[in-house]
Amino acid sequence: MLQQFGFTQYESQVYEALVTMDQPLDATNIVKRSGVPRAKVYEVLQRLGEKGVIMESTTDKKRLYSAVSLDSVIEKLKTDFQQNIKQLRELQVKQTPIDDRVWSLKGDHSIQSALKEMVQQARKSVFISGWADDLHSYLPFLEEKYKEGVVIHIHVIGELDTMIPSVSTLIPDVHHGTLERSRIVIVDEEEMLFAGVEDTDWQSIRTKSRSLVKFFTEFFYHDVALTEITEKYRDIVMKDESIRDVLMKLRY
């Protein structure tokens, strides 16, 4: 009966011998009722006790054994099965190697294709930062993901007309003339791509490294915070030359 649940044949025979009796049995009677050899019965009883499916007691110097009710054993088997499934799933996750290598990618068109692919594969969230004229080409993909329930956060330099509510907008003025072109996308808090212009050519890095994904996520919020501070206190910070010079050295 219990063999299909991972018990041995002898264990199953002993449990059946006990559960079908309305009174405890000693080892001698268990041998008679179960057919398990006497040389094996104590070993089997010990294992069943460790598995929690029989109880034992000593009365008048005689050790007696009784089966845990069938309903209780069924509940135990169900709980054990669910726990084993959970451990198996956790093991699969732990053994899945994370590719934490940093990959470099050059060329504007190649970088744009990689960025669009990442956005389209997003399941939970997208953090994206860039200039308005650049982000405009990704907007259809971002809005489609937003409709699917994916959380979208955008930081944009320039005006961007979108249905997505979570947008931090920096309107550049003459003091932002030195701002460098760049792009950041972070997908599902698992993978990121950062691209910038070097010697007039676009270059980028792409990685699933947890430390770099975390760093660039914080970098994204750093840009958002700077934007909000600059926009809210523009009259103050832009008139104070020392504060303005420091802010203009920071990347948005």
For the record, what is the CATH homologous superfamily label of the largest domain?
Endonuclease Chain A
Number of DSSP-assigned strands: 9
Largest sheet entry: 7 strands, mixed
End-to-end CA span: 69 Å
Q: Using only CA atoms, what is the Rg? A: 33 Å
Label the overall shape: rod-shaped
CATH class of the largest domain: Alpha Beta
- How many alpha or pi helices? 10
Secondary-structure element pattern, one letter each: HHHEEHEHEHHEEEEEHHH
Kindly report the spatial arrangement of strands forming the biggest sheet. Answer: 3-9-8-7-4-5-6
CATH topology of the largest domain: Endonuclease, Chain A
Beta content comes to 15-25%
**Overall structural domain count:** 2
Helix content: 40-55%
Rounded mean pLDDT score: 85
